[in-house]
Amino acid sequence: MNPLAKELNDILIKGNPHAYEMLSEVGKNLYFPKGILTQSAEAKEKAKKFNATIGMASEKGEVMHFSSVMSMLSGVTPDEAISYAPSYGIMPLRKAWKESIIEKNPSLKNKETSLPVVTNAITHGLAVVSEMWVDPGDVIIMPDMIWGNYRMIFEVRRSAKIVQHPLFNAEGKFNLKGFEECVTREAEKRDKIIVLLNFPNNPTGYSITKEEGEKIADILARVAGSGKNVIAVTDDAYFGLFYEDDVMKESVFALLADRDPRLMAIKLDGATKEIYVWGLRVGCITYGTVVEGQSRPFYEALEKKTGGDVRGTISNASHLSQTIVLRSLQSDSFAKERDEKFAIMKQRAHELKDVLKDPKYGKVWEMYPFNSGYFMCIKAKTVDAEALRVHLLDKYGVGLISLGKTDLRIAFSCIEKEDIRELFEIIYRGIQDLAG
After folding, report:
1. What is the C-alpha separation between 230 and 303, in angstroms, rounded?
2. 20 to 30 A Cα–Cα from 335, which one of 4, 23, 87, 327?
3. Do residue 124 and residue 266 come from a single domain?
4. Distance from C-alpha of 15 to C-alpha of 10, rounded to nearest angstrom
5. Tens digit of pLDDT for each residue in 24-70?
6. How far apart are CA 255 and CA 131, in angstroms?
7. Shared domain check, 156 and 11
8. What is the overall mean pLDDT for the chain?
9. Is the pTM of this model over 0.85?
10. Is 183 a member of any domain?
């Protein structure tokens, strides 16, 4: 083991030995190199005459660049746009994003958490988490309706095993009983479990109530209190897009971050959907647990391991993308713009619910509960979902996503409010076509 990794491990063990136990073999061996990057950082601070350490070209005191590139980037300097960013992410964005997390999750105000580490959006963040915390054969608990890429990230790339629980109960609410039974059963078989919580849920667009969130946190804390290590990963990709009053407006992360030393909460979020900048690929990883003594050295050790994983895969996320996100967060118009876009999304969701009140639709499909996010799902009663998807595409030029034999995912996020009724009329017509 590299001495730098051992040094970080010793810090983790001192602050919370269970956190060290939970790391994968890769995670235990990760460190942030003190080679070129560290020497370059020292030179940036002290090399006043010549700095010949950085693998970038410079000219006349700034990063060398093409005018054809920079002419397209108004308001940012070459250093802010095309230079390398730190593997952790640029510090102003990390601090600003942490402030925004606390603003959106007031329960975190007096809780100690890490500084966010910037990733190439949440998909990359999930991959980093899988490398740091998941060993081959580990079990990851998630609902029976999931984003399909989880299988690629955890099962294919890390040889973990996904174990699923029912997302909904008979009343169309979060299935707390099924969740608790699954978590308890799996925890009895092993020393560590990993639980993935995704609200608003992809593909259903369902978010839990505050009461359900508190019970989820209680269940995981109980398992941790029984002597089992629990890693709770919250995939908050669609955070903030909550359209009903009874939906929990905070991340479950806020309820888990300081519950038990055997409970490691990991929050994955980012600008992708929250600021509507999908292609900029800016996500974050934030940690929260119980730490003995000073928490900052502990979280710095986790940040260094995370930064080391980023360094060993993509080196760093785009500096330009991070600068754009930071400038947006700092803009005087940010809150107004966010509220305006949210209002559009909320209107679409409510229009969809009004349209689907038509009793004729209930004869051919069942609507899964939804109250947030980008998506909703229907369960076809009389036709095969994939056959319907292909028929709608070929005959009507309408694209949906089929999920298994019965389910179809509909992204109302990209459908104008005035077009929603026509969309569902076409889906209904397509089912009638196939049913004969």
Report:
1. 19
2. 87
3. yes
4. 9
5. 999 999 999 887 667 777 777 787 778 788 788 989 888 999 999 99
6. 25
7. yes
8. 96
9. yes
10. yes
